[in-house]
């Protein structure tokens, strides 16, 4: 072993002499510092940090490979750095002043203030594709519901033109043929009660398809002109099926957050379109020998309705279908608990449900009394007997339903501009004024035009009622409540025409207009009692 003097070693380094060493010597007694030389890539040198030791140091050879990579290659000067690189780095470090602790803190704080929270955003193309897919699916769902409502309008509009031939074919009078309407009303009421239980057990998709199957069974029974009791039962099936579909469709569209009011108007306009087209076709079959073949066309529409509902809604619940179009469930949907009060009791404890149900009863009753059955609608009977109208007066029924459809589409802007709650008063009061002209002006043309405009004004009322119910009724009860409101409303389609018949038999058909005016005034009073916003108990 060679003995090396520490002071001599340091002075040699200061003079710039760099001995070539392949191995380094390390002291056993004190810490050492590393000095790297650029003359040779394998050169490493250890020197003592102490300068006042009088005894020589024992140095032992130690292979460079035993040191760590960071020790062998400092981060500033690498072993492969050239002379110019080392000189440049040395000059930059010589002129630099080490930052103080305060400067370091300030610079770090400034950097942190400039850092923004990390936000993850999907690529625009992906977001746009998802939005387009959801909009397309939403439009398909809405179109399927419109087709369903068009079938219901087709069903209701076909009864009036076929009613005289039904009476002739079965040799029954008005009192017996009225069983058809009573049966239909009972079907609606049963469906309204069953809808609450079925909606909880089966869900939206299955209940809609169940209703479509009942409508299909109705037309299968009616097509061969069955015995009169079977015809009565078929009207019961029709009322039950339409009650289920009407409640579910109104509840689904009323639960939407985007364009709810416009879609409700379009949904019920499709009903008016079906009711407008059906009398035109049914009138032709009423003059044919096989009048019941009209229901073969109805059965074909019912088959297409069932297929479309199966393909679009796929037996899923309403919550799943709304999530597919990008709408999260409402907070009210989570208000139910396993220990909550019975669902029927919750519904009957809501005061606004009773008010809306009575309003619906009178509204539907007035609508059917004017434009629906019996005998092409009582307004047609009024025109024939009081205004000496001919057989063509039957088309006034189509004019009324045409106005109904037009009003639901054309008045959407006015509804939004004025406010749906306020505009109901305006429409009903204007309808009262038009009914007064029918009452006192003895002109067939004026009466026909006035009846069509009454249809325009009354058309938006039912969609407004559904949309208003969605605002004042808890979301998790809305579909069930709409089933009840619809069922009670359809009861009015039998009750008010029946009362009209009783009044006509005692006072004559001229009593129709005072009765309609009185019912419309009652609608104004009921709507004034309905709150504009939800009241929290």
From TrEMBL:
PROSITE patterns: MFS
Claim: Transmembrane helix is one of the keywords in the record: yes
UniProt superkingdom: Eukaryota
Protein name, entry field: MFS general substrate transporter
Pfam families, A to Z: MFS_1 (PF07690)
Membrane topology: Multi-pass membrane protein
Keywords recorded for this protein, A-Z: Membrane, Transmembrane, Transmembrane helix, Transport
Spans through the membrane: 169-190, 202-221, 227-244, 265-285, 291-313, 352-372, 392-411, 423-442, 448-466, 473-499, 511-530
Domain Major facilitator superfamily (MFS) profile: 141-534
Localisation: Endomembrane system
Keyword Mitochondrion found: no
Family designation: Belongs to the major facilitator superfamily.
SUPFAM superfamilies membership: MFS general substrate transporter
């Amino acid at each position: 072993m060679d003995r090396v003097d520490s002071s001599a070693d340091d002075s040699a380094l200061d003079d710039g002499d760099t001995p070539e060493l392949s191995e380094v010597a390390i002291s056993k007694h004190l810490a050492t510092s590393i000095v790297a030389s650029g003359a040779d890539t394998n050169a490493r040198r250890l020197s003592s940090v102490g300068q006042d030791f009088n005894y020589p140091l024992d140095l032992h050879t130690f292979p460079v490979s035993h040191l760590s990579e960071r020790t062998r290659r400092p981060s500033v000067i690498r072993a492969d750095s050239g002379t110019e690189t080392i000189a440049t780095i040395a000059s930059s470090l010589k002129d630099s002043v080490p930052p103080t602790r305060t400067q370091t803190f300030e610079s770090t704080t400034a950097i942190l203030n400039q850092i923004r929270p990390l936000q993850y955003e999907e690529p625009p193309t992906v977001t746009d594709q998802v939005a387009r897919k959801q909009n397309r699916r939403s439009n398909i769902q809405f179109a399927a519901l419109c087709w369903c409502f068009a079938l219901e309008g087709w069903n209701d509009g076909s009864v009036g033109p076929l009613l005289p031939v039904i009476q002739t074919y079965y040799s029954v009078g008005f009192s017996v043929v009225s069983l058809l309407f009573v049966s239909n009303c009972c079907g609606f009421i049963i469906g309204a009660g069953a809808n609450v239980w079925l909606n909880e057990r089966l869900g939206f998709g299955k209940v809609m398809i169940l209703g479509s199957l009942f409508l299909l069974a109705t037309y299968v029974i009616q097509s061969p002109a069955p015995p009169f009791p079977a015809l009565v039962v078929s009207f019961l099936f029709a009322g039950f099926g339409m009650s289920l579909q009407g409640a579910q469709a109104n509840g689904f569209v009323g639960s939407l957050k985007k364009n709810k009011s416009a879609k409700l108007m379009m949904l019920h306009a499709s009903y008016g379109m079906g009711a407008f087209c059906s009398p035109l076709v049914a009138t032709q079959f009423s003059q044919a020998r096989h009048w019941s073949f009209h229901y073969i066309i109805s059965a074909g529409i019912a088959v297409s309705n069932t297929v479309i509902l199966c393909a679009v809604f796929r037996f899923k619940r309403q919550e799943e279908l709304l999530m597919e179009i990008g709408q999260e469930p409402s907070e009210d949907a989570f208000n139910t608990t396993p220990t909550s009060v019975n669902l029927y009791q919750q519904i009957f404890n809501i005061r606004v449900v009773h008010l809306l149900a009575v309003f619906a009863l009178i509204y539907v009753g007035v609508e059917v009394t004017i434009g629906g059955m019996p005998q092409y609608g009582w307004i047609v009977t009024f025109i024939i007997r009081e205004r000496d109208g001919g057989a063509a007066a039957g088309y006034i029924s189509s004019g009324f339903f045409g106005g109904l459809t037009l009003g639901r589409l054309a008045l959407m802007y006015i509804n939004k501009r004025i406010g749906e709650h306020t505009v109901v008063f305006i429409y009903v009061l204007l309808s009262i004024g038009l009914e007064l002209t029918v009452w006192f002006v003895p002109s067939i043309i004026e009466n026909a035009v006035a009846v069509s405009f009454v249809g325009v004004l009354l058309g938006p009322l039912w969609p407004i009622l559904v949309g208003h119910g969605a605002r004042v009724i808890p979301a998790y009860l809305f579909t069930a409540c709409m089933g009840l409101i619809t069922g009670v409303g359809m009861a009015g389609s039998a009750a008010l025409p029946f009362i009209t018949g009783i009044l006509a038999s005692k006072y004559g058909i001229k009593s129709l207009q005072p009765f309609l005016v009185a019912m419309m005034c009652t609608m104004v009073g009921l709507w004034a009692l309905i709150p504009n916003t939800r009241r929290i108990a």
